[in-house]
What we know:
The chain is α/β, with parallel strands linked by helices. It is built from eleven helices and eight strands. The protein folds into two domains: about 5-60, no CATH class; about 80-390, Arginase, Chain A (3-Layer(aba) Sandwich). An eight-stranded parallel beta sheet has the order 2-1-3-8-7-4-5-6, sandwiched between helices.
Amino acid sequence: xxxxxxxxxxxxxxxxxxxxxxxxxxxxxxxxxxxxxxxxxxxxxxxxxxxxxxxxxxxxxxxxxxxxxxxxxxxxxxxxxxxxxxxxxxxxxxxxxxxxxxxxxxxxxxxxxxxxxxxxxxxxxxxxxxxxxxxxxxxxxxxxxxxxxxxxxxxxxxxxxxxxxxxxxxxxxxxxxxxxxxxxxxxxxxxxxxxxxxxxxxxxxxxxxxxxxxxxxxxxxxxxxxxxxxxxxxxxxxxxxxxxxxxxxxxxxxxxxxxxxxxxxxxxxxxxxxxxxxxxxxxxxxxxxxxxxxxxxxxxxxxxxxxxxxxxxxxxxxxxxxxxxxxxxxxxxxxxxxxxxxxxxxxxxxxxxxxxxxxxxxxxxxxxxxxxxxxxxxxxxxxxxxxxxxxxxxxxxxxxxxxxxxxxx
Length: 409
Ligand SMILES: [Mn+2]
């Protein structure tokens, strides 16, 4: 149906509904003045149908004809973001699964413009990550300075954004997240989601459950928050409740969840009991303080050893001293170094099947974009670990000997 026709029908539909609605009101605004909530109104906008412009995908045949493969938008081989049309890590662009397959892409990065945070701004994170004012963010190259592995050997692509609707109840964006993650999983590439807020993890989990079956993928969850709060805000799932719905609806098992960095004012006794009953593997900041980071890291790595891993990394898991630009800050937390070590170690030890870095709020970052640059380095460290594993490194605590001893020692 074309847009004009749907607009006409929408108008007619609303007009008809004004006269035929069986019930008049739910006690709030009368339905005749609130077509969006009349349960019998056939013209209620469904966010995924063509009446909603924010979900209409572009007709790709509008572009120039080209063979499937990567598209390099920039004139120069080399240069930081501000010299270029910005993409994630300066990577070339892929638009379709055929592009990913033709170029044998290893890492398909994509952005999310979802924006439901306590302090909103995550919707801007993907674009900010493409255009950090950071001398290092030139095209994907450069050795990981801990393990001496060149991440430029991975074939990377910027796969565009997975969500367009920034105004809606963010549940409606989850279909798009699911579709894009599924598209990428259908190739040999690893989906790496960048930006947005934590609700999107639900779309990752449903796509992974569809591909691998529930229970096959371990979820490593770095966060100050446990994110298994009950439904609320008129939603089944929001950025603090997605694990609860995922477990309750059978998308994952509670025992698939491995949490690191929990602290602050939640969970309460009821939810902590739910976490225990559902066998979540949690590592509170209390455990890190009591036993030390090294011990908890070793424990976590042994718990997930041998499993496929989906990493969902909330930037507020890191101490706000290192990551001030987040949607819901909590004092204390992982240091930047601990976070970098964790993602690198996971990349080496485990088969990473998906990853996602969220809750970065660039509006609250400092002038030097400290949080954004840390998120960039976390992504690079994960990729370093993944490439290290491909090159035969097996010890998650491996260090490049060249970087441990200098010539005069
Ligand atoms: Mn959080």
